[in-house]
Amino acid sequence: MLQAVPKLQHEIRDPIHNFVRVTADEVAAINSRPFQRLRHIHQLALTYLVYPSATHRRFEHSLGVMELAGRVFDIITDERNRHSGVQDIFPDRETLLAWRKTVRLAALFHDLGHLPFSHAAEEQLLPDGKHEWLTVEVLRSGEMRDVLKQMMPAPDPDQVAKIAIGPEKWGKWFGKATDFKEWDLLMTEIVTGDAFGVDRIDYLLRDSHHAGVAYGRFDHYRLIDTLRILRHPTLDRPMIGIEKGGIHAAEALQLARHFMFLQLYYHHVRLAYDIHLSEFMVQWLKTYPTDVEGHLRMTDNEVLSAINIAAADPAAPGHDPAHRIARRGHFRKVYERNALDQRLRADAVECVAKALRARFGDTAVRDRQIAPKQQNVEFPILLDDGSISTSRSESTIYAGFKAAAVGAVFVDPEKKKDAMKWLADNKKTILSQQMELGV
Amino acid sequence: MNDLQRSAIVATLVKDCRAGNGFCGETMVQKSVFVMQELLKVPLGFDFQLYIYGPFSFDLQRHLGSMMADDMIAVQPTEYGATFEPGEQVGYLETHTAKTIAAHRNAVEFVVRHLAGRGVKQLERVATALFFTVTTDDTSVEGRATKIREVKPHITSDEAQKAVEEVDRWRRELAA
Questions:
Q1: Is the link from the previous residue into A116 a cis peptide, with omega within 30 of 0?
Q2: Which residues of chain A neighbour B93 with C-beta distances below 8 Å?
Q3: What's the ipTM?
């Protein structure tokens, strides 16, 4: 008698990676309610109001991150790629298989805690302002525990959570950063690492594709092929680095990040809409439901619906920002951070914002400043002679790289013309005013 | 303290550390800021937790990134690793936050005097010893040394004890 053979591997089509390959266990994880919710969370918030095709969701991004996490894990643990200086850190084959599953699940679930519209209002609405806290709460909840328990072997939800959020956030809310042993740090580096984390690799490629810009593209195939676990020459600990042949792909990633930061993620119109969205959510919601059930019920759909309703009702909480979002009445940029003014005074953006508020009123002016996201990234590089150097020593891009900060001041569109003229006439005076000296 | 004042203290630390070509890597900056904040009570406000090489602040790591973007510090590769050095805008800081720098000059000199020239492992030991000195009620040398070894088993009992004793000497020096 013929019997159906259960399919052990499934494929999901993806415009970035061609296929995302998943196991039966992972299908169960993907079908869970917390994960399906990500179908309704925009990856880039209201960026589609600037780049109309940037409507992709955290759902497909998370699938992509899982796919890449598996690829990276396979490359760096491959016996042919193990450097002599780190041979002793690798666990046995069975343990490695379990870790592979944990890392892929961590990659899949890393965004479960995202609020509607991603980062827009998390600073104001969440304790300590970070969604990772909610990611862990969801992973520890009944439904997710059941999903993980039924896997063979069953991963530990806290282990998955640790790898998903990294040592800083874990140490801040749930345990200690020192809970991460040497191998744990390598595993979380695969997902969240500053140099080569797959979260970043996927979103740069995916966001670039959907927005229709070239900036985020780079040779990630080559980069991943050259990833290796190497012992840092001066810090003397194993980290994810590259073979020398991958340095240009790594440099391209660094530059991609830089350009996407400036051109897409912090586009001035996007920043303006972020401000209005954040104000709307705070006025409409007052507080965000941080119980798991309340969180799972909140998606972009509820927020968009509320925006449409509030935009049409002047008496509704959040009417003004809702109206600006729905009717394209966003505040307009009248000043942005620039190198020349920064040389005159480090607080140039705050200074200009303060002056404009004094002249045009608090309600007509907004400002936003974003500190550089890129950390002091350094990683080991395996040279052709077998010795290990570092990114700053081997790459002029990394040696001289300076991350960009972004800042802008916006005004009510009705005041834009007057504000620009006033600023042109008074900027020099504003920036040369006596700074308050430190105490 | 506001961000500019924090930058002023850190930039002064880097400048003093680099005077005479001393090495000033991220570990040195992290541990020096920790000592200034926790022992010398400079109100820098960075959030520290125990990490790979002892007390570490991800806030401070981000702040260093901001300082680089503003040319207050720069990074230079050397044979010992990457060192920070004063950036082009250090003069700007010295002009506009002179009072802040003057108020905490002694703290900067203290940490440079006691920590400059030390390797990562030495910095780890003494900073972790200070961490347990300020976060636990156990005042005994043995008790704190035991705590160090519980989280850092690669540190020997002798090394842990010496680190705790050194921290206690610093405290006596400050009290005198």
A1: no
A2: 346
A3: 0.90
